[in-house]
Amino acid sequence: MSQIRRSGLQTEVINFYRKCCKAVRKKPIETRNRFQQFVRTQFRQHDLSPRDHNAIEYMLRRGKRQLEVYENDNIKDIINS
């Protein structure tokens, strides 16, 4: 079985997605679905070229700041608008 070679940026995006999914599992069970949908929407809504490193890095920085807010234990629910 051959292993896919990924760039450092691809690996960083994948690891960030995993971190988001872990954060969702820490939310109350009744709101996890909304958080999971929010994460999926955020990752899918941006149609970026894999070669657009500046935009990807910007989105990662923005996403990490957003995740810090949503990881807060006081945030129990999210309204997906």
From TrEMBL:
<dbReference type="GO" id="GO:0005759">
    <property type="term" value="C:mitochondrial matrix"/>
</dbReference>
<dbReference type="InterPro" id="IPR045295">
    <property type="entry name" value="Complex1_LYR_SDHAF1_LYRM8"/>
</dbReference>
<keyword id="KW-0143">Chaperone</keyword>
<dbReference type="InterPro" id="IPR008011">
    <property type="entry name" value="Complex1_LYR_dom"/>
</dbReference>
<dbReference type="GO" id="GO:0034553">
    <property type="term" value="P:mitochondrial respiratory chain complex II assembly"/>
</dbReference>
<keyword id="KW-0496">Mitochondrion</keyword>
<dbReference type="Pfam" id="PF05347">
    <property type="entry name" value="Complex1_LYR"/>
</dbReference>
<comment type="similarity">
    <text>Belongs to the complex I LYR family. SDHAF1 subfamily.</text>
</comment>
<feature type="domain" description="Complex 1 LYR protein">
    <location>
        <begin position="12"/>
        <end position="69"/>
    </location>
</feature>
<protein>
    <submittedName>
        <fullName>NADH dehydrogenase 1 alpha subcomplex subunit 6 NDUFA6</fullName>
    </submittedName>
</protein>
